[in-house]
Amino acid sequence: MLKLYHGPAAANGLKCLAALKEKNLEFESVFIDFDKFEQHEPWYLKVNPEGQVPALDHEGEIFTDSSVINEYLEDAFPDALPLRPRDAVGAARMRYWNKYIDEHVMESVSAHGWNTRIHQFASSFSEEDFEKYIARIPLKRQRVKWRKAREGFPTEQLNEAREKVETSVNRVEAQLQVTDWLVGNRFTLADINYYATAGFALARLFQGMISTEKTPRLMDWIERVAARPAIQAAMAVAPISAPPKG
Amino acid sequence: MLKLYHGPAAANGLKCLAALKEKNLEFESVFIDFDKFEQHEPWYLKVNPEGQVPALDHEGEIFTDSSVINEYLEDAFPDALPLRPRDAVGAARMRYWNKYIDEHVMESVSAHGWNTRIHQFASSFSEEDFEKYIARIPLKRQRVKWRKAREGFPTEQLNEAREKVETSVNRVEAQLQVTDWLVGNRFTLADINYYATAGFALARLFQGMISTEKTPRLMDWIERVAARPAIQAAMAVAPISAPPKG
After folding, report:
1. Which residues contact B1 (CB under 8 A, 6 or more apart)?
2. Burial class (CB in 10 A: 0-12, 13-18, 19+), B177
3. pLDDT tops 70 at residue A186
4. Could you tell me which chain B residue has the CA closest to the CA of A62?
5. Is this complex's ipTM strictly greater than 0.85?
6. Which residue in B68, B92, B103 is closest to A95 by CB distance?
7. B102 lies within 8 A of chain A by CB
8. Which are the contacts of A43, defined by CB distance < 8 A and separation ≥ 6?
């Protein structure tokens, strides 16, 4: 039995929801309510001591980190629809994209996301209540991030982040001039990763960065990903129409 | 035919050299002389447009990023000694460590390494010559890093980096109280990664951080890794006894 602990269907949570739906694997969804800081509740820290979502429970074994979880699903369910190329070269190309997205795109998109949505949420608490919640967060880097969200991220960091995201947009646009998907002509975990990390939020968070004139291939790719039934099913598990606040 | 482009047997270069030697794969070694900024020479940018080493050439296909290369070797040479657990759970545990080391340890060790060895090297050029070399570097983040190496890294960054490295030391020590190697009782790519990224340089770069009193398991693990014939063979490909300068 598979059980996924996740927040709203965005970013890392969407990555795993999308992979599970694309592979058509049955799973129990456990929604973690960021509005209630449930990811830092003692009961959840027993699942993931880092207080991060998503986390996957597969027959009692716990896996964390969305990219690790998604490769695990490939290894553990070899008979389900593959989202990782079966050839060594293709798998390497996919992992190169995943590493690039995880290491050089994810935090940059996140800084802008947190600086808008989560800023409002984090500012809504009294200093005392806020510090009480912060004190429960296991990872120091997450405590730092929450404080920045409350105070507002430094302009320099936001500018650098925007530049990094724009670099990724140009790289993806260039790749899509050569191949239908990020890795050759098959939809893979790399497409899921870029869509969940950046693609679905680019138009909202980075106005003017993408358009049918500047980035036609990327615009088309975003539409193609968004139209996939599995992606729509993943989004429907925990709709973000009510803005995620935590 | 395998060909590895690499600098001195340290950090990312050592990661791939060690994997190739452990798997007993024949390869041609192409030494990239950092002292001559060869990694930014036009001929090398044709191999890796990012101007980063190592890079692997396997029958004309080029692979970059040491963690991606090492998993590629697992996929491409299934009959060689495996360095990735064959079971899905073990592979996930290994990838979790690799992501943690790549994302939260590597740059922190590197900041201290660059701030000492590479600082001397980068300071030895006239402003004009230095800028001439910097202008050739494709990745902006590497240009920023070279400038910091010349000027000296900010104290705050070095302090934060030291703290992150110490966190990793404590996590590894805790793991080694439970298992012989980072992932269960088999030597894997995670051991290679932590040794090449941090282990072999901890005593030199972070005085007082490790000792037989404070971190007995880690000290023993460092000795066990260093004693492996394949690791010694990897180090011998491009000895770092003459300090790498670039």
Report:
1. B27, B28, B58, B59
2. exposed
3. yes
4. B89
5. yes
6. B68
7. yes
8. none
